[in-house]
């Protein structure tokens, strides 16, 4: 009897195994479309930006609204920095990016620029590598109104190497600064001098900054190069 039960059990097992579907092949990770552009916006929120906070918010929002109208797909990562570091959104579909308000942007404290650039670029680079997109289209925008003065995590040499490595992979970097020699500051961290722009710490100056950022990203999204991107016009009134 026990032998009969064992035989029946074996038969049932064989029937069950035969009914199982063939083992599925491992799924391939779906890559983002080649035309997708990743935009990394690193925006100074230190105390010296306090008097320009409303103009900064308005300029940033204008940049977002204009970029939403551009053809093609893009994702945005926005980082605010002072002595600390905050990510407003990481690789968010540009069409879904919310507008900035004074609740999110409230300037205070010092300028840990190296920490902000080092951490933001490292995090995005790692994320893209995990997607298999390390050599795809990435543009990094840096807006600051002062020099580095309080970083504790990243040294200059580390930032230089990080930017150099990313540029070899096709990343583009743009540096816009007030109260500094932007070409010199950009060059010091490994950004091309032609991708640097000075701006006046004023309403018109910030309008120039965000108009220039818009032009650089628009050009990069369509051609892979920032082209002629600097926009200077202090003669006309600030747009309402």
From TrEMBL:
Xref: Pfam families: VWA
InterPro entries tied to this protein: VWF_A (IPR002035), vWFA_dom_sf (IPR036465)
Record's keyword annotation contains Signal: yes
Outline the extent of the VWFA domain. Answer: 38-213
The record's section on Gene3D superfamilies has: von Willebrand factor, type A domain
> Which key words tag this protein in UniProt?
Signal
What is the annotated signal peptide range for this record? 1-24
PROSITE patterns associated with the record: VWFA (PS50234)
Protein name per Swiss-Prot or TrEMBL: von Willebrand factor type A-like protein
Q: Which organism is it from?
A: Jonquetella anthropi DSM 22815
Lineage at the top is: Bacteria, Thermotogati, Synergistota, Synergistia, Synergistales
């Amino acid at each position: 009897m026990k032998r009969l039960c064992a035989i029946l059990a074996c038969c049932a097992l064989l029937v069950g195994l035969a009914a199982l579907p063939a083992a599925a092949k491992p799924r391939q990770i779906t890559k983002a479309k080649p035309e997708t552009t990743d935009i990394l916006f690193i925006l100074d929120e230190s105390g010296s930006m306090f008097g320009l906070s409303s103009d900064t918010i308005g300029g940033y929002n204008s940049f977002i609204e204009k970029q939403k109208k551009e053809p093609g797909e893009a994702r945005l990562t926005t980082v605010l920095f002072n002595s600390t570091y905050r990510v407003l959104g990481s690789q968010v579909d540009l069409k879904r990016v919310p507008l900035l308000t004074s609740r999110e942007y409230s300037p205070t404290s010092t300028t840990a620029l190296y920490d902000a650039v080092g951490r933001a670029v490292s995090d995005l680079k790692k994320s893209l590598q995990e997607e298999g997109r390390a050599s795809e289209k990435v543009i990094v925008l840096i807006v600051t109104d002062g020099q580095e003065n309080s970083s504790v995590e990243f040294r200059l040499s580390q930032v230089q190497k990080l930017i150099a490595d990313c540029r070899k992979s096709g990343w583009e970097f743009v540096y816009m600064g007030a109260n500094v020699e932007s070409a010199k500051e950009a060059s010091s961290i490994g950004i091309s001098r032609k991708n640097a722009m000075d701006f006046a710490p004023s309403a018109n100056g910030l309008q120039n900054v965000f108009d220039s950022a818009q032009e650089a990203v628009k050009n990069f999204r369509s051609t892979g190069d920032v082209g002629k991107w600097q926009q200077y016009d202090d003669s006309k009134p600030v747009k309402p």
